[in-house]
Amino acid sequence: MKHSNLLIVFSCLFFFYSCKYDKNEETILKGNVAITVDETVLPLLQAQADVFQNKYDATIKLVPKSEAETLNDLFNGKTGVAVLTRNLSEKEKINFSQKKIIPKITNFAIDAIALIRNKSSNDTLLALKDVIEFMKGNSNNAIKGLVFDNPNSSTVSYIKKLAKVDVLPENGVYSFKSNEEVIKFVSENNGMIGVIGMNWISEPSSKMLSYLDNVNVLSVKALNGSSFISPTQNNIAEGTYPLARDLFIVNCQGYSGLGMGFASFIAGDVGQRIVLKSGLLPVRVPGRKLNVRNEIENAKE
Question: CA-CA distance, 19 to 3, in Å (whole number)?
Fold first, then answer.
């Protein structure tokens, strides 16, 4: 009987310390974490994850999905960390609070939605009002068709909200599974206008370079604008490009884990430099360090 009791005690102690060890396996700079990422900004997050993993003993698995799928994963607890191209709405925040979850939200960059067209057309200008009219089902000569990455993507959501429509028009709208497929389709089909995340142009993969050579990035005129503005880093910074949007990392882990460490890294100096290098706009422009010497050394003869 005594041996049996001792066995139970040792088993409980082993279970307790095992659980404690597993919990401590993940810290803000160590461990494994899966992060669901809006597919339209995947290249930027891949660059961030690569540098983070080289600096720390961490493994970050990026899972690219549409905006709707990313939000569903957060709400259903399938992921604890996600990257979105917009902030959570008040309704979404209330839904989390009802589950006793307070998301930690970090704004880390400003992105842009880019419109692309096949180079066979010499027209590199497009008025936003024409896009809105097309989304409302009113055909026009400026647009033959709009091509999105996914019917549930953040680009679709953004343009639908801009046009104040609940559903996509039945004709003239095409969707695929990724931004890469949109670029490929537009490069091979005249007259189509692709709607993609700017990050896929500013940091293209090697396999996309040949397709990008056959498309033009369009300059867009705002609804109340008088000039056409291209989605450059400078124009995004000045707030003149009409299709800019903020990027957020949303952490619902509920503890100080790797998700918190990665968010801090992206919002920190190194992460913001990666954003700057990617062609997007960091929330905090990294400063430059200058070494000032009190004396000028004479060059050796």
Answer: 24
